Recover the amino acids of this structure.
């Protein structure tokens, strides 16, 4: 296996393997979140959203993408972003074809990302994933790679079917012109 710089010729294979990789994740994710949240993020289905978002990464920041290849076959990919103000790199996307999972591909891609961060002078690396049952394998992989969990809470409130509330006292909306 070798890690190479992304080329547009890899695009279709990377999108396809990403969808295969996340196929088992999204049904469990859907069960774990409120329906209004899932439907807001994925009104046309998760596949449509994932292809759209991942294509935007591949097309918009190809220099940040590395591909794991065996001969000419893409096994997985990683997108590494840099946040210089925080001296932090970020594994923004990590996907491995299910046929090649648990064979060290994800770890090799993470190590490549770590090296890129170090070479850019970053002091730490961030990765985010879900806390639902579908993302449990990802959490295990990140913890095995030495990531420490950061306590974050993300809340959503359903606004559909509710009348708009009056402005809060003291806000500009509360003042007459």
């Amino acid at each position: 296996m070798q890690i190479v710089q992304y080329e547009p010729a890899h695009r279709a294979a990377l999108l396809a393997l990403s969808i295969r990789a996340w196929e088992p994740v999204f049904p469990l994710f859907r069960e774990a979140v409120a329906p209004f949240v899932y439907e807001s993020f994925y009104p046309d289905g998760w596949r449509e959203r994932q292809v759209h978002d991942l294509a935007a990464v591949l097309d918009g920041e190809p220099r940040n993408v590395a591909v794991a290849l065996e001969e000419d076959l893409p096994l997985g990919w990683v997108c590494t972003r840099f946040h210089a103000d925080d001296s932090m790199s970020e594994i923004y996307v990590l996907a491995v074809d299910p046929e090649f999972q648990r064979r060290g591909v994800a770890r090799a891609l993470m190590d490549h990302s770590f090296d890129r961060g170090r070479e850019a002078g970053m002091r730490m690396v961030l990765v985010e994933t879900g806390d639902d049952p579908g993302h449990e394998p990802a959490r295990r992989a990140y913890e095995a790679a030495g990531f420490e969990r950061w306590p974050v809470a993300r809340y959503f409130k359903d606004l559909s079917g509710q009348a708009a509330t009056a402005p809060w006292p003291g806000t500009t909306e509360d003042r007459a012109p």
Observations:
- The radius of gyration is 19 Å.
- The helical segments are 11-22, 25-32, 35-41, 46-60, 105-119, 136-144.
